[in-house]
From TrEMBL, chain A:
This is ABC transporter permease. One of its GO terms (biological process) is transmembrane transport. Gene3D superfamilies: MetI-like. It is found in: Cell membrane. InterPro entries: Bact_Polyamine_Transport, MetI-like, MetI-like_sf. Pfam families: BPD_transp_1 (PF00528). The chain crosses the membrane at residues 9-31, 63-88, 100-120, 132-153, 182-203, 209-227, 239-257. It is a multi-pass membrane protein. It comes from the Bacteria.
From TrEMBL, chain B:
Residues 6-236 form the ABC transporter domain. Pfam families: ABC_tran, TOBE_2. This is ABC transporter ATP-binding protein. GO terms for cellular component: ATP-binding cassette (ABC) transporter complex.
Amino acid sequence: MNLSRPARIALRVAAALGFAVIYVPLLLVLVNSLNPDRSSGWPPPGLTFGWWADAWHSSGARAALWTSVKAGLGATAIALVLGTLVAFACQRFRFFGRDAISFVVVLPIALPGIVTGVALNTAFRTVLEPLGVGLGLFTVIVGHATFCIVVVFNNVIARLRRMPGSYEEAAADLGAHTFRTFVDITFPLVRSALVAGALLAFALSFDEIVVTTFTAGPGIQTLPVWIFSNMARPQQAPVVNVVAAVLVLLSVIPIYLAQRLSSDTASGSRI
Amino acid sequence: MEGMAVRLQNLRKSFGRTEAVAGVDLEIADGEFFSMLGPSGSGKTTVLRMIAGFEAPTGGTIELGGADVTRRAPFERDVHTVFQDYALFPHMTLEQNVAYSLKVRKVPKAERLARAREALASVRLEDFGTRRPAQLSGGQRQRVALARALVGRPKVLLLDEPLGALDLKLREQMQVELKAIQRDTGITFVFVTHDQEEALTMSDRIAVFNKGRIEQVGTPAQIYERPATPFVAGFVGTSNLLTGDAAEQVVGDRATYSVRPEKIHVLKESAAAEPEHDSATGTVAEVVYLGGATRFLVDLDAGGRLTALQQNLETSSEDVAALRGSRVRLQWHRRHNFPVPHDPSTHDPSTEGPLAKDPAHT
């Protein structure tokens, strides 16, 4: 479509403003992580990597990062298994209540985190604590898995919808038994959807704060929770900037990969 | 039973409350090119899918080579299928696709590669072995699907409208090729199609399906020249039925008769009737110029409408167009009248149920 010159300029300015609102604050975090002024004064009086060294040696930040990675991997693993199973059930079979199940699976991602958090907190304390299982990393993983399942489920079911069932029939027809068909045909064709779903699930878990607050036991601190509790302390503010800057750079990778993988068509996608 | 590649007995299949296949009995001989012809929703694809093992019958039995396979899984049956959408594995090369059935059967790698290449060569795709299906045209994919299904030398090859997605030229070429492959290999072909011309061209025998039942089984000539039911007369070839008053006046018998369009001569109204011929006068309602031939739709004075097909031996398009609205006499030899039974024995009205579309086609 051809636009008039003023319209073109106006649209470009609007687009630039939109992106600026999103990305300038992130850029500021990056700049401030190199700002020698402890209170992030502007303009920066110089350039220093001192805060990066401090952050590297901060045991709190390291422990929190490690906790986050463990929580993310755990939640992703649960989501992969359960989300894939539900997606296959809902796409490949007809049964009573199928639509209801697919609705119930997707719902948690729309629930406010505070609701999920409070509900899980109550449930864990009334059900698990009498059994001797207190709040801890395990409960955080279960809490995260509730919404991580959704992204895996959505990715896998979208792939299955685009994939005709005749591939699997053809494999069976050519002599492959059920498990062989899954290994040779089904899995290779959904693999990239699984990876995309897993990356998104990990990213979701990694930046979660509300559900984590309600499901983490004492002494369990994920990275977002650590940032939240340290950013108010003037002593720690520069280190928080560094950690935030690192997280921005790290999140680029899974999102980029997930986008490439899920835009791949079912045919010819390879990893 | 000896010599029978496929034997179906009272085969039934219901999807929910709709009966897609309502009792089919059929015997297909070894080495036969057998077509299952019918409109979409007539149950022919469902029958094919039950022979392949993709659908479990609601009732009845399926025998392959004399063995009851009704409850066996697809991978336990010595049949291979050419799918309507070809179903080539997109993540494998053509060689890997064609060699898949051999790989599953643990044929050594060198041998299966050689056989896959040979099979690809037999469909003239020997230079394409390392490509992927996405890089091929529709006709090429069709040939790969054929090679993949044939490489394992199955007893029976099932083909589910394999030529449906091809353009006319390619389709005619593949019809000849399929027939040649069938003759050379001696494999029993069970071919599902809704295209009556395709069925007439290639088949040794045809079963005409309607509403989950078989209306008639016979050679192409039997099906075409002697349709057993009004449905077969209408579905195979152009429907040209004389019924009621028209039949009484023209043929002299109050029944239903079928006459094929190419048997009917279009004459001047004043032409004298020849012996041994039936004739009827009427008005030309429409003239359709087909290049090599012309189709006349004639409203009979006795009631009803007949279609007549005339070769354009000496006439041209201008000549035939002028005949629209004119009075003519239609004449044909009596031996081309075929009585069409109204209540064929293959039809049991007491079990007739509502039928939905063939689910494999939706």
